[in-house]
Write a structure and sequence with these properties.
alpha+beta, 6-stranded mixed β-sheet, 7-stranded mixed β-sheet, globular, PD-(D/E)XK nuclease superfamily protein
Length: 897
């Protein structure tokens, strides 16, 4: 009997992402008898988006190897048992089932006997269990990476199913959506085990599951335990859905699959379907469709908005309330020329005091860096790029060198800018992923430094430095001052991400997106090289959208930190030599340098495109907000006071005090966007959920009569004119801006009350004190004046500025000896890390003496800091020593992630 392909655990989980698509459900491996990756090949559209780079596969295999290591297997098993609320095991045994069903059954029986007789826990890795509901079929098995068997009550045992996932920590944490997907895969293993007839008598599947994830960049694992009730319910629903779809299918095995797939209707979204192996097939179908409206599906226009812009693809017009951004996207796609939003520049990119940076990340390590390029902008122009290639991408020294080089440039930028009064410096990167890598490195090194300060205190008092788990610690060297400057600056950016008006690290892609709307899928604009190509159409002429999209997708280079799969392979082979070859340092350096050259070129093209946009009158507002905040940060850095604290570890009182700051920041951002960005204001006016900004049309000018496009503003309401025919009033010569202590005042704006007109419910006479030059038919965007401020007159508009985050920060009059001289008075402002960590070290030592910390206490105490520290002599990832085999062709990145 031929084997029935079920797609494994990942296939079932992926169904949760794409379950709304009839084509995805109808091409279940259970129906078509092959994986979707193979199906894509059979249809003539092989999938490359799920390709697993060799370095990424090596990392995954390295992590699985570490999970099986005797030291970590015992730790993972013990922690799992403790967090599941079970008794402490007498010992931990590790066994290998070699992905074989019969061997799995035998080892589980032995583990059950060991648990009930000896109270031992067993970590079984490499399991194979029949897919839930298909035990009597010849079908692909579910293959959990490991499971823990532990003693229950009486002569019973528990089976706790687990998976090993080498998820990257971004800014000290793992993305929740990844953890959800991982636990769904664990849940499928648990459901399959619970339904298996060969599960030993007296053994039950536990209600909780476990994920082994890296706790640091050395890939050393830790166990995350979570209840599976909801996950298992969803898995049961998805499995039942798969069986139902399979039973109702009309496909006959052995016949041509192409007509069958073609009749299944796809629910296409370029932003989410990219992870589906049939993405290229479905996109080609839309591209060759004779129906013009299918273009809207291809570029990802939401279904609820397609009717509003459908007229554009047939030569007509969009509906009046269609969002301006979507209209711009469709028009750009049709004529191949990007659309300007009308927003003028408020960013600091390319100006004196900024540092440009590009980075090539290694797939083999969470924080690995192949190379970086840096340059600084000064009063005399931009300096030359300084390119550095690292021979050991994943080493601690490489991470410190990245911070050292960046810190030197930030320090120089600060020294040059200090003479200009209130100032801010910026690091400019091509995309958010690059910023995430930098902040993650900074978080890593900050944790190491704080741990070092604690151990320094231990050594002072003659105590042995120990990790949180009680093992002898490997004490690192101290951060150099310029390294600390970079680390502290990037952690400031980490905290600043809660405040939308701040940008110590400038995401250049996001900046350009404020000014240009590209054609094609909005998802493609998340790549800077794609977006800048559309920005260049404003001066160079039109492009062919589909050809540009394909060229960018097929490029061997990327503008951001991550490499393409093929380029990653080439770099990895040159660095390690691969399975059958010697390393080639010269080729490695050349490949990394070439990659950095592409990233530099894209960044420079972006700055050239931005240079064609003039500065906004609101730029000074944005600069002042950032300068005030960075003044607080510099005091933290100078006094070593809370400058190494990431956002996720801010004190509770600090976080609570940030709530009104975050609220005022969001309000100010929306108000400034409504003032200065015509497209954003038009979108607000078209949004039924926005009450404060509305559209209007001029009926006559003597008197000034408006048709207001909303019932939210009535007679007696005061309004302020924001935009006329897509031009921002705040940018006009007659408008003056005056910065005040807590706000910014704009004079010269048209402000006044509305008065009703008989028999015309939405028509009003408007009498502003400052009468603007308007003509009948002009399209306006106006706002409720009370949304901005409560000033009594109609002469000026006030916008409140958000307060700086100065909680737990040195005050302007705090000095180097303020805390030492008056500790009680200054304990919440300028207490240095050196003192705070010494105190915490003493408290940990006291708890350890009382037996309140690992390994004495049960269940194990969870380390919320999760800092980058390793026990002395503990095994770490050695990626160069691992097998360089390529990933199996039937696996995709979805299987790993």
């Amino acid at each position: 009997m031929p084997s029935k392909s079920l797609g494994g655990g990942s296939g079932a989980v992926a169904a949760s992402t794409h379950a709304a698509c009839a084509r995805f459900r109808g091409t279940d491996p259970l129906v078509v008898g092959r994986t979707r990756r193979q199906l894509a090949v059979d249809l003539g559209f092989p999938d490359d988006s799920g390709y697993i780079p060799a370095a990424r596969w090596t990392r995954a295999m390295t992590f699985e190897h570490l999970v099986r290591d005797t030291l970590f297997a015992g730790e993972v098993a013990t922690t799992t048992v403790g967090r599941a609320g079970l008794d402490r095991p007498t010992k931990v045994v590790t066994v290998n089932a070699h992905v074989h069903v019969d061997e799995t059954a035998e080892l589980l029986a032995a583990a059950h006997e060991r648990a009930v007789e000896e109270g031992a826990a067993t970590l079984v890795h490499g399991l194979a269990v029949p897919f839930a509901g298909f035990e009597d079929s010849v079908a692909t098995e579910v293959k959990p990476d490991f499971a823990v068997v532990a003693a229950g009550q009486g002569r019973t045992s528990w089976l706790i199913v687990g998976d090993a996932k080498d998820y990257e920590r971004v800014r000290s944490r793992i993305d929740d959506t990844r953890l959800l997907k991982g636990f769904l895969q664990v849940a499928l293993g648990a459901e399959s085990a619970a339904a298996w007839s060969r599960l030993p008598g007296g053994m039950a599947v536990h209600s909780h599951g476990v994920l082994a994830v890296p706790r640091n960049s050395f890939l050393q694992p830790e166990a995350l335990v979570e209840a599976l009730h909801d996950h298992r319910a969803e898995v049961r629903m998805r499995v039942a859905e798969r069986r139902r779809e399979a039973a109702e299918t009309r496909y006959l095995p052995g016949t041509d699959v192409a007509p069958f797939v073609a009749h299944l209707r796809a629910t296409f979204d370029p932003a989410t379907c990219i992870t589906c192996p049939l993405f290229s097939y479905c996109r080609h179908e839309l591209r060759t469709s004779p129906n013009p409206a299918d273009l809207l599906v291809e570029i990802g226009v939401p279904a609820e908005l397609r009717s509003q812009v459908a007229g554009l693809v047939t030569g007509g017009e969009a509906a009046a309330r269609a969002p301006a951004s979507v209209v711009a996207q469709v028009r750009a796609t049709l004529d191949g020329v990007g659309r300007e939003t009308g927003q003028l520049r408020v960013d600091g990119a390319g100006r004196p005091g900024t540092v440009d940076m590009v980075l090539a990340k290694a797939d083999a390590a969470a924080l690995g860096v192949h190379g970086i390029a840096l340059r600084r902008h000064t009063e005399h122009g931009q300096e030359d790029w300084a390119v550095t290639v690292f021979d050991e991408p994943q080493s601690v020294e490489t991470r410190r060198r990245v911070m050292r080089l960046l810190g030197q440039e930030i320090t120089a930028a600060m020294a040059e800018s200090a003479s200009r009064g209130a100032y801010a410096v910026h690091v400019v990167v091509p995309d958010a992923v690059t910023a995430d890598v930098l902040v993650s490195i900074a978080d890593n090194l900050a944790g190491v430094e704080l741990s070092r300060l604690r151990w320094e205190r231990d050594q002072e008092l003659g105590r042995e430095p120990l990790t949180f788990g009680g093992e002898p610690a490997r004490v690192p060297t101290a951060l150099h001052p310029v390294e600390r400057t970079a680390v502290s600056f990037l952690l400031e950016d980490d905290r600043a991400r809660a405040l939308t008006l701040r940008a110590p690290v400038v995401d250049l892609r996001a900046v350009l997106a404020q000014h240009v709307v590209a054609g094609g899928p909005a998802f493609s604009s998340l790549r800077l090289d794609y977006l800048v190509a559309w920005a260049e159409t404003l001066t160079k002429g039109p492009v062919k959208p589909r050809e540009l999209e394909d060229d960018i997708e097929g490029s061997q280079h990327t503008p951001g930190a991550r490499l393409t799969g093929r380029r990653s392979d080439a770099v990895h082979r040159a660095l390690t030599g691969g399975r059958s070859g010697d390393p080639d340092p010269e080729r490695y350096t050349a490949l990394v340098t070439e990659e950095l050259a592409y990233k530099r070129d894209v960044l420079e093209r972006t700055l050239v495109a931005l240079a064609t946009v003039r500065d906004s009158s609101l730029r000074d507002v944005h600069h002042t907000i950032e300068a005030d905040a960075q003044a607080v940060w510099r005091r933290r850095l100078d006094l070593h006071a809370s400058d190494l604290v990431r956002f996720g570890r801010t004190y509770r009182h600090w976080r609570n005090s940030l709530v009104p700051v975050i609220e005022s920041d969001g309000r100010c951002r929306r108000q400034l966007a409504a003032l200065g960005n015509p497209q954003a204001a038009a979108d607000m006016a078209a949004d039924a959920g926005v009450r404060e900004v509305v559209s209007a049309t001029v009926v006559s000018t003597g008197p000034l009569v408006l048709d207001v496009g909303s019932r939210r503003l009535g007679a007696g309401a005061r309004i302020v004119l924001l935009h006329v025919n897509g031009d921002a009033c705040v940018e006009r010569p007659g408008t003056a801006m005056t910065p005040l202590k807590g706000s910014v005042k704009f004079s010269g704006m048209a402000i006044g009350p509305l008065a009703g007109v008989d028999d015309e419910p939405r028509r009003f006479v408007w009498t502003p004190d400052n009468v603007p030059a308007l003509a009948p038919g002009d399209r306006l965007v106006v706002a409720d004046f009370s949304w901005y401020c409560d000033l009594k007159g109609n002469k000026a508009l006030s916008v409140g500025r958000p307060a700086a985050d100065d909680m737990s920060a040195p005050k302007p009059d705090c000095g180097a000896y303020s805390y030492a001289d008056a500790p009680e008075e200054h304990q919440y402002c300028c207490r240095p890390h050196e003192d705070a960590e010494a105190d915490w070290s003493d408290r940990l030592a006291e708890r350890r003496d009382k037996g309140e910390l690992n390994p004495q206490v049960w269940p194990p105490v969870f380390d919320e800091d999760a800092f980058e520290v390793t026990p002395e002599g503990a095994p770490v990832a050695d990626l160069a020593a691992m097998s360089q085999d390529e990933a199996p062709d039937d696996l995709t990145l979805d299987d790993l992630e």
